[in-house]
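Today's session is about reading a structure prediction critically. Students often jump straight to the picture, but the first step is always the sequence itself: look for stretches that repeat, for charged clusters, for runs of hydrophobic residues. Only then move on to the predicted structure, which in these notes is written as discrete structure tokens rather than atom positions. Here is the chain we will use throughout the hour.
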Amino acid sequence: MALGPYASFIVTSYALVAAVVLLLIVWIIADYRRQLSRLREIEASGVTRRSGRSAADIR
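Below is the predicted structure for this chain, in token form.
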């Protein structure tokens, strides 16, 4: 596959896009873990989620 005189630009562009996508994936995974940890802390302190209650608890 010949990319012509712009091969370095094309390869660099694809590499940068791949790096940005990879960083976004890592950031999302890290944030998800932080959110789960924070949720566990909140629930351990006694705060419950409304979605965790049954219909009988609401009345």
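Discussion point for the tutorial: The helical segments are 7-44, 55-58.
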